[in-house]
Design brief:
Oligomer: single chain
InterPro entries: DUF202
Largest sheet: none
Pfam families: DUF202 (PF02656)
Distance between the termini: 59 Å
Number of strands: 0
Radius of gyration: 18 Å
Number of domains: 1
Main location: membrane
Membrane topology: Multi-pass membrane protein
Structural class: mainly alpha
Subcellular location: Endomembrane system
Length: 111
């Protein structure tokens, strides 16, 4: 059993928040595959699959990152884990931005 390195368990809360974010992105992508085909055609299937694959990949990356940080924090020679580079947040932000552009295109086409 590992020692309690942070009484507030901040890394666990952050890891869970990232997991919820990735699962929400996955749910939105799957919903898009179901709802959008009558509106924008077969492109919606491709967009939904792309979003789903990206959400699952981000989920694995988030989990691996959490485990790496947890191991470093609980190790006997624990140093501070390196600061995040921001690539994960930038990837998710770009994906949500792209989904917003697609939503805007659908709204304009329906108007």
């Amino acid at each position: 059993m590992s020692t309690l390195f942070d009484p507030g368990l901040q890394p666990e809360r952050t890891g869970l928040a990232w997991q919820r974010t990735c699962l929400s992105f996955l749910a939105g992508s799957l919903a898009a595959m179901k709802v959008l085909p009558p509106l924008i055609g077969d492109w919606s299937i491709l967009l939904g699959l792309t979003g789903s694959v990206e959400a699952v990949a981000l989920l694995f990356i988030v989990r691996r990152r959490y485990l790496r940080h947890h191991h470093r924090l609980t190790a006997e020679t624990a140093g501070r884990p390196p600061l995040a580079s921001g690539k994960l947040a930038a990837t998710l932000a770009f994906s949500v931005f792209a989904a917003g552009i697609v939503s805007l295109a659908v709204a304009i086409r329906l108007a």
